[in-house]
Amino acid sequence: MTRGLLIVISGPSGAGKGTICKALLERNDYWISVSATTRKPRQGEIEGINYYFVDREEFQKKIELEDFLEYAEVYGNFYGTPKSKVEEMLDKGIDVILEIDIQGALRVKEKVSEGVFIFILPPSMEELRQRIINRGSETQESLMTRFKSAYQEINYISKYNYAVVNDKVNDAVKKIESILVAERCRVDRIKEKILNSKEGLIHEQLYD
Q1: What is the average pLDDT across 183-207?
Q2: Distance from first CA to last CA of the chain, Å, rounded?
Q3: How far apart, in whole angstroms, are the C-alpha atoms of residue 68 and residue 189?
Q4: Secondary structure, 3-state, 151-205
Q5: What span, in angstroms and rounded, lies between the C-alpha atoms of 43 and 187?
Q6: Which residues contact 79 (CB under 8 A, 6 or more apart)?
Q7: With a threshold of 0.85, does the pTM exceed it?
Q8: pLDDT digits (tens, 9 = 90+) for 112-133
Q9: How confident is the model at residue 165 (pLDDT cuts 50, 70, 90)?
């Protein structure tokens, strides 16, 4: 069985990662990993759907048990990706999406170099600023912190395999789908299958 692709999607806050991931899931049979976090739920967020909401003590215990594929502290809160479920899905041949922050994505890359790392960009910094404002959940201080961080985070784009501008969601989703089709055709991903097919063909020729 071919192992599933680990698809890591990240980018600055307000770039539209969540919207893109939702659209990808509506069109494809992917599984999206649910992260654990110590931050408080926002209005409308559901336990086990958006995040697993835990306190700092419980999160620390999970770190000690090496229960995270990655974890990081962002804006004073911890976020982490539970490891066992991700591995289970990949082993079943299911493609897994990780929608995580840039710190977390770089930590995953250190452990899982064969992952597909996609950086989501806003069409402009002004558009990014407006998207953050439209959330209605930021104070003026936190807005400035996130906007300043976004400038810094874009510098990490060279660490990723691909960059996709989220101008129109449908166009961005199609680009990501095309990236994943190409990734499944990479020789280094399918060479074992090719070798097995070749050996099978040789066997048939010898004993036909």
Answers
A1: 64
A2: 27
A3: 25
A4: HHHHHHHHHCCEEEECCCHHHHHHHHHHHHHHHHCCHHHHHHHHHHHHHHHHHHH
A5: 45
A6: 35, 36, 37, 38, 39, 71, 72, 73, 100, 101, 104
A7: no
A8: 889 999 999 988 887 777 777 7
A9: very high
